[in-house]
Amino acid sequence: MFDVKPMAGSLGAELHGVDLTQDLTDEVYREIRRLLVEHQVIFFRDQDISHAQQKALAESFGPLQTHPAYGTVDGFPEISILESTPEKPSKIEAWHSDMTFREHPPLGTVLRSKILPPKGGDTMWSSMTAAFDALSPAMQTFLEGLNAVHDFSWGFKESLNEPGGRERLKQAMADNPPVVHPVVRTHPESGKKVLFVNELFTTHIVGMSRKESDAILKFIFEHVVTPEFTCRFSWQPNSIAMWDNRSTQHKPVNDYFPAHRKLERITIDGDRPY
Length: 274
Fold this sequence. Notes:
This protein is an alpha+beta fold. The chain has helices spanning 26-39, 51-59, 128-133, 137-144, 152-155, 157-160, 165-168, 170-175, 210-223; strands at 3-6, 13-16, 41-44, 64-65, 72-73, 76-84, 108-115, 123-127, 147-150, 179-182, 184-186, 193-195, 202-205, 230-233, 240-244, 248-252, 261-268.
């Protein structure tokens, strides 16, 4: 059905042979989902889809989420605008999984390119199943018994410190109090174990002193970005990336300032990690 071209040893594949501007059958949607779980992040090239088609692709996986802090596309409140300009450059630098500050973090994300810099602006992903599998059995067992706190205000601290930022995000903070998730979650479809803490939103491990927690998190944050766990995608016009937010982390490469970069994102509602 698809021409699947794996990109790296641990995760990532480009899918060819499908036109996302056409009506897709349930069989095609099921195969996209299967390939997403298998490869953790999948990519499509030359797909000039409409906003409605992007939404339909995301909805084939389940209900959608909205983001509490980003602007949205007119008429499509589910589609967040991720834009970096000379006047307002991107602030996201850290590796992360999307919106882990929610009780039900997203299942996945559909991201499409709209405006690209002449060079740079790639995105990287890392496999959290590969990261877990590479740990010693003793470390795996130790981490599986831990829980950690994820906090919206920690992830958006730079925005909160801007003039008027705390007032602008007051409701978002009220709607998203800190939550607790397991340090190691089980993927609900593959059954694989996944490291589920990230530098952007995870503040500390429950039941540990700050010194102990910081040491463990520092080790994990450095471990999960081991090059062998990663892949890197160079955006082109009308590219689409879909990733499994339950089993990956990602990082935008902010090497294009002061050029303009704009992408549009939909996130799919997920389950409570266990």
